[in-house]
Amino acid sequence: MSRNEPTRSSRPSRPSMRRCAKMGCGEPAVLTLTYIYSDSTVVLGPLATFAEPHNYDLCNAHGEKLTPPRGWELIKLAAEEYASGPTHDDLLAIAEAVRSVASPQTEVIHPTLGRRGHLRALPSE
């Protein structure tokens, strides 16, 4: 390697910004388009957390102009429908699930017989 070639550690790291999937458009993506073939439905919603191969990221302008194929239904999900954090009901459901797992399971084991299985506990005398 010559002195003039940059090494991996010296290259500046740029955050990866997802771009609009429309040919020739370089605008940042803000919406994700998904086709649900089984229901003949097109769903356009807020930008997905990560890119998937069968979804299309679109800029706002191309998302607004979108028309579904003939005979298909278009569902537009507003960004407000997705709050940045969990709802009160979500938190209650998580707390209840943790409580049910954390509650001690009462298993009755006869002290002289020990536990059934390949290991047996014998009482010490």
Describe this structure in words.
This protein has 125 residues and is α+β, with helices and mostly antiparallel strands. It has a domain at 16-80. Helix content is 17%, strand content 16%. It is built from two helices and four strands; from the N terminus they run βββαβα. A four-stranded mixed sheet has the order 3-1-2-4. Strand 1 and strand 2 (41-46) form a beta hairpin. The termini are far apart. 7% of the residues are buried.
Q: Report the principal-axis shape.
A: elongated
The proportion of residues forming helix, as a percent range, comes to: 10-25%
Major β-sheet profile: 4 strands, mixed
* Quaternary structure state of the chains depicted: single chain
Count of DSSP strands: 4
- Rounded Rg: 28 Å
Total count of helical runs of at least 4 residues: 2
Mean pLDDT: 77
Q: What share of the residues does DSSP label as strand, in percent? A: 15-25%
In N-to-C order, the SSE pattern is: EEEHEH
> Strands of the largest sheet, in order across it?
3-1-2-4
Low-confidence spans: 7-14
Main structural class: alpha+beta
Intertermini distance:
75 Å
Question: Which short descriptors sum up this protein?
Answer:
125 residues, four-stranded mixed beta sheet, 2 helices
Summarize the structure.
The chain is of the alpha+beta class. It has a domain at 16-80. The protein has helices at 60-65, 88-102, and strands spanning 31-36, 41-46, 55-58, 73-76.
